[in-house]
Amino acid sequence: MRPTRRMVLWVWVGVVSVASLVVLFIAVQQPGSPIRATSIALGSWFPAAITLLGALIAVRQPKNRIAWLLIGIGFAVLVEYFLQLFLASEPVSPSSLDLAAIVLVHIALPFAIYLMFLIAFWFPSGRFFTRRQAWAAWPGAIMLSTQFLVTILTKEIGPPYPSEA
């Protein structure tokens, strides 16, 4: 890996780590649902840890697909946490930014789960062992696309985790 790419990768790890700390700080300070805030605070270390693991693998083996999947999982989970915190206060009339956040929060976690699904098929070599495994990955991609379309086309759309009364 070239030194500039390596530096960009470590800067990305730093950005995700700082963002994870920001998520932790906001989740602890936020009034409202203590259950959701506690779960986000306890899981805020995950994006930084999984991104660091992916970066450590990518620095040694830049063509390893699993490393890049781990970095993608860290990013998707971080986006999920930020959007959950953003949507914690439910406005009376949602703006277009709120609607975009609602759509993205319904996509980020299924995307991370699909990447984990791919890791299960690609581990340890970074590619499918047989053609059957490659065909087995298609249902996950179809389910992810269906989740996206259902979220977009649903008549009534709202936060995935409504606040407790």
Give an account of the 3D structure.
- With 165 residues, the protein is mainly α.
- It has one domain.
- 75% of the residues lie in helices and 0% in strands.
- The chain has helices spanning 3-29, 34-43, 45-60, 65-86, 96-122, 131-136, 138-153.
- Helix 1 runs parallel beside helix 4 (65-86), helix 3 (45-60) runs antiparallel to helix 4 and helix 4 (65-86) packs antiparallel against helix 5.
- The protein is globular.
- The model has no long low-confidence stretch (mean pLDDT 78).
Q: Brief description of this entry?
A:
It is built from seven helices and no strands. The chain is mainly alpha-helical.
- Count of separate DSSP helical elements: 7
Percentage of residues assigned to helices: over 70%
Distance between the termini: 52 Å
* H/E element order: HHHHHHH
| Radius of gyration from CA coordinates | 18 Å
Strand segment tally: 0
Strand coverage percent = under 5%
Indicate how many domains the architecture comprises: 1
User: What profile does the largest beta sheet have?
Assistant: none
The structure class reads: mainly alpha
Q: Unreliable segments (pLDDT under 50, ≥5 consecutive)? A: none
Mean pLDDT: 78
User: How would you describe the shape?
Assistant: globular
Keywords:
single chain, 165 residues, mainly alpha, 7 helices, 75% helix, globular
Helix-strand blueprint:
Layout: H1 3-29, H2 34-43, H3 45-60, H4 65-86, H5 96-122, H6 131-136, H7 138-153
